[in-house]
Write a structure and sequence with these properties.
Oligomer: single chain
Number of strands: 20
Largest sheet: 6 strands, mixed
Number of helices: 12
Structural class: alpha/beta
CATH topology of the largest domain: Rossmann fold
Radius of gyration: 53 Å
Strand content: 15-25%
CATH superfamily of the largest domain: P-loop containing nucleotide triphosphate hydrolases
Low-confidence stretches: 132-145, 530-555, 607-611
Mean pLDDT: 79
Length: 611
């Protein structure tokens, strides 16, 4: 095909080789179709598909080869299928186990990726019992020392909604990827010198992308703190719209379900969650035209089903209790529903509402400590919710204050306040003071925690410094001991060398004195070969007799251990300690000295003959 293209005229140079239905052909324009001799496969306004005559047998052969390959593959697959059929049960079991392992690995990866916390799970209505694994052993128990001293039914500090956190991290990852791509494109254009004008636009876009990354990293999702006391059964959360009430409910529900399927909780440790037997939720608008359900009736139908199914080990989440109808009737109905759930309807019920009457359940004689209030914090200066939960404080109405700040005519605002009444204003003022005190308490608590962390850090630094000093002192002591030991070894070596030199010099001096004495004797004999009398000989014999020993006439006699020998070089006697016949050496002891000498350098002495 390439050869045909090369041999074509210049006018047919726009043609190209392509594949149609597995056959090689040439795509050419309508005007150039006459340049190629072959079969016309198709024709359109864009051009013609021509299969050259010379390529027909080659295409046929290629198609036959493909058919043979397909048949061979089919035969192989058929044989493999027959083999798999023999072990189908084992393969299915292996597949199921692989799926289980994949689920476990997916849970672990998710928990690690979002820095989750292992929850302390316990069975509702059973004290000090942790949930056990399938093998019968405890999954994991968090030490009671890790939890605050107060008994908690649900404890989740700094809890995140998983979808909000996931979306935020994905946005950051996407923004950073855009920054990296733009940076690489600018670098490429600078290397090849392309489109300087467009480079300026890319640089401007890059600055915007970096600004978005920094903004995303700054605007982190706001975590919520859930600290529900052990005696609390119903939690009523109030607050403005878009303040985070519904997200808080969903966070608790998702955390409970995540813990049950083996996922870590996206919260700070420690985390304590009951093992709910079921999680029931009425969240959102359940109106339906097909079922003739309004918002109110849809909520009631859902809540009725939840009340019938929930038990004393269930979690119930109710969003906007009593909404969708007359406020007075809705508030009365909401109070009755929550009291019903508090009696025996669930282990824990979380409800959000705008009805102020539901806040009073905590202070009724019925509730005892079963009810607890919380509200979503609202920043009135900036007219924005902070998405933080204030515990123990019922939410107050902010509608009139917000309308005043938004610039509504003052006479309308004042009229609204008169219609609301002084009692409501006093209650709101009281709640405002409670919120202020709560915020001050939280601020002081944070400062105390910060100071505690600093003191712990200083304590750790002091311990490290003390350990460093002890280690340094020990190292110095060991170093000095090592130096002293080295000097002692050197001193002993010097003393040994000096002593050896002293011994050698003493021996050399003795030998020299002996040689001088022999030379003097020889010179005397030369002068007087015959003694004038035998007195000198008698004196010598007397000296030998006084020693009680006579020289060994046999100079080749080998001494034995313990023998007394005479060492001419020392001009003294010594005792044989050891004999090494292989080296013709003998070790003798003369006083405090031990010497190694040749056998020829000692003479065996004869002891006196005992009478």
């Amino acid at each position: 095909m390439d050869k045909l293209m090369r041999n074509a005229d210049d006018e047919a140079s726009l043609s190209e080789v392509c594949i149609v239905n597995g056959r090689c052909c040439i795509r050419t324009t309508m005007d150039n179709s006459s340049f190629f001799d072959g079969l016309l496969l198709s024709r359109s306004d864009a051009g013609s598909m021509i299969e050259p005559i010379v390529a027909v047998p080659l295409n046929d052969e290629l198609q036959e080869s493909r058919a043979l390959v397909a048949k061979a593959e089919l035969d192989v697959l058929s044989k493999l299928t027959d083999k798999i059929r023999l072990d189908l049960d084992s393969i299915q079991n292996l597949l199921q186990e692989t799926i289980k392992l994949d689920k476990i690995a997916a849970r672990a990866k998710y928990s690690i990726a979002y820095d989750g916390t292992f929850p302390d799970l316990y069975l509702p209505n059973f004290e000090n019992e942790t949930v056990t694994s399938a093998t019968g052993g405890s999954i994991k128990q968090i030490s009671s020392a890790q939890l605050p001293k107060k008994a908690w039914k649900l404890y989740m500090p700094n809890a995140y909604h998983p979808l909000l956190l996931q979306r935020h991290q994905e946005n950051i990852h996407r923004a950073k990827r855009d920054v990296a791509s733009a940076t690489a494109e600018i670098r490429r254009r600078r290397i090849y010198g392309q489109d300087i004008a467009e480079e300026d636009q890319l640089a401007s876009d890059l600055d915007s992308m970096k600004l978005r990354v920094s903004q995303l990293e700054k605007d982190q999702p706001v975590p919520v703190d859930f600290m529900i006391a052990e005696e609390t059964t119903v939690l009523v959360i109030t607050g403005p719209n878009t303040g985070g009430k519904t997200i808080s409910l969903k966070t608790v529900g998702l955390a409970s379900l995540m813990a049950k399927i083996g996922l870590y909780i996206l919260a700070s440790e420690p985390v304590k969650i009951p093992w709910f037997n079921a999680v029931y939720a009425d969240i959102g608008d359940e109106q339906s035209l097909t079922q003739s359900l309004s918002t109110f009736s849809g909520h009631l139908k859902q809540i009725g089903a939840i009340r019938a199914e929930s038990t004393s080990e269930s979690l119930v989440l109710l969003d906007e209790v009593g909404a969708g109808t007359n406020p007075l009737e809705g508030a009365a109905l909401g109070m009755s529903l929550l009291e019903s759930f508090a009696e025996a309807g669930s282990f824990l019920t979380l409800a959000t509402t705008h009805h102020g009457e539901l806040k009073t359940l905590k202070y009724s004689t019925f509730s005892n400590n079963s009810f607890e209030n919380a509200c979503m914090e609202f920043d009135e200066e900036n007219l924005k919710p902070t998405f933080k939960i204030l515990w123990g404080i019922p939410g107050r109405s902010n509608a009139i204050n917000i309308t005043e700040r938004l610039g509504l005519p003052l006479d309308i605002v004042e009229s609204s306040r008169r219609l609301l009444g002084t009692a409501g204003a006093e209650i709101n003022a009281l709640i405002m003071d409670m919120e202020r005190l709560k915020q001050e308490y939280q601020q002081h608590l944070q400062e105390a925690q910060y100071l505690l962390m600093q003191s712990k850090e200083l304590h750790n630094n002091l311990e490290l410094a003390q350990k460093s000093i002890v280690d340094h002192t020990s190292a110095q002591r060991k170093r000095k001991a090592r130096v002293i030991s080295e000097y002692a070894v050197m001193a002993r070596s010097i003393i040994r060398k000096k002593f050896q030199q002293f011994q050698e010099s003493a021996i050399a001096e003795r030998v020299k004195e002996e040689e001088n004495a022999v030379n003097d004797a020889k010179s005397d004999r030369v002068k007087d070969p015959m003694p004038a009398n035998t007195s000198a000989i008698g004196n010598i014999q007397n000296i030998d007799t006084s020693l009680g020993m006579t020289a060994n006439d046999d100079e080749d006699e080998v001494p034995e251990v313990g023998d007394s020998v005479y060492v001419p070089k020392l001009k003294n006697e010594a005792t044989v300690v050891k004999i090494d016949s292989s080296k013709n050496e003998v070790q003798v002891q003369a006083g405090m000295m031990k010497l190694k000498l040749k056998l020829k350098d000692v003479k065996v002495q004869k002891r006196k003959v005992s009478r």
